[in-house]
Automatic annotation (TrEMBL):
Family the entry assigns: Belongs to the eukaryotic release factor 1 family. Pelota subfamily.
eRF1/Pelota-like N-terminal domain sequence ranges: 1-131
Compartment(s) where it occurs, according to its Swiss-Prot or TrEMBL record: Cytoplasm
Gene encoding the protein: LOC103517089
Name of this protein: LOW QUALITY PROTEIN: protein pelota-like
Leader sequence residues: none
GO MF term list: metal ion binding
Length: 301
């Protein structure tokens, strides 16, 4: 939802906001935001009758701006249109005062909403509606090798496409698979960059990977071969601050990526139970049991 302007009186909370719904989710927010008795101003089509000098009448459809006092609200989810019925409260050359009209609020069309009192819930809905990512706690990544990538954000009521990518991956040729492998790496990297660009992990709690065949499994393996270090901000006490800063700088200097998880998020809480620091490496590490056995053998020697 795009906020064009907002003018609300600090004392009695009356005022008007101008909004532009940009996504299907925005229409849902508008449906919950507008109530009976509100005034809505928007561009609309009106059928008007005109009479010529000879007495004959003709009808035509004209676009005009109307302001109505809302009496009923209907949300057509299939067409993604919000229909508001009410009486015209600002007369113009086409529509008389008090005449009934139905405004159709559509995507990417501005409308102005006036309320005698903007309560805290209505104001919060505007803030939430301005950014879908604030409400989307699940993301879905759908991919098909060599064809497409689609990243969706899923809210409590709807899902929305955030990124689409089409790419061509050459087939494996006998004796030469380098081009195929390079193209796969580029594709997987584009998937990762798309996730990082559109998924806010401070809000999103789960990312779903979906694909035909084993594409998702191959991407999952590639993702965990990419080195990055995560740490929880709450485990950085004063004595260990220098060590963590040194660790972060070292990882970045060697081309790795660092992620800091908030201790207020479930991911940070879980990581905090595992010492607060974790690394995903490009190379294998011995199991702790193997290290213990080696230490015992060295002590016996």
């Amino acid at each position: 939802m795009k906020l064009v302007h907002k003018n609300i009186n600090d004392k009695d909370k009356s005022g008007v906001v101008a909004l532009v719904p940009e996504e299907s989710e925005d229409m849902w927010h508008a449906y919950n935001l507008i109530t009976e008795g509100d005034s809505v101003r928007a561009s609309t089509i009106r059928k008007v009758q005109s009479e010529s000098n000879t007495g004959s009448s003709t009808s035509s459809r004209v676009r005009t701006m109307l302001t109505i006092s809302v009496e009923s609200i209907d949300f057509d989810t299939q067409a993604c249109v919000l229909r508001l019925k009410g009486r015209n409260i600002h007369e113009n050359q086409y529509v008389k005062m008090g005449a009934y009209h139905t405004l159709d609020l559509e995507l990417n069309r501005k409308f102005e909403l006036s309320k005698t009192e903007w309560d805290s819930i209505a104001l919060e809905r505007i803030e939430v509606g301005m950014t879908i990512e604030k409400t989307a706690d699940v993301a879905a990544v759908m991919m098909q090798e060599g064809l497409w990538l689609n990243i969706m954000l899923i809210t409590a009521s709807m899902s929305f496409g955030e990124d689409k990518l089409k790419t061509n991956i050459p087939r494996k040729r006998r004796g030469d698979v380098k081009q195929h492998e390079k193209a796969l790496v580029r594709f997987y990297d584009n998937v990762m960059q798309g996730i990082l660009r559109h998924v806010n992990f401070d809000i999103v709690k789960c990312v779903l990977l979906a694909s035909p065949g084993f594409v998702k499994d191959k991407f999952f393996e590639y993702m965990f071969q990419t080195t990055y270090v995560t740490l929880v901000d709450s485990v950085r006490d004063n004595g260990g601050e220098v060590r963590y800063v040194t660790l972060v700088d070292s990882v970045r200097d060697n081309g790795g990526e660092v992620r800091i998880f908030s201790s207020m998020h479930v991911s940070g809480e879980q990581l905090g139970q595992l010492t607060g620091v974790a690394a995903i490496l490009r190379f294998p590490m011995p199991e702790l049991e193997d290290l213990s056995e080696n230490e015992e053998e060295e002590e016996e020697d």
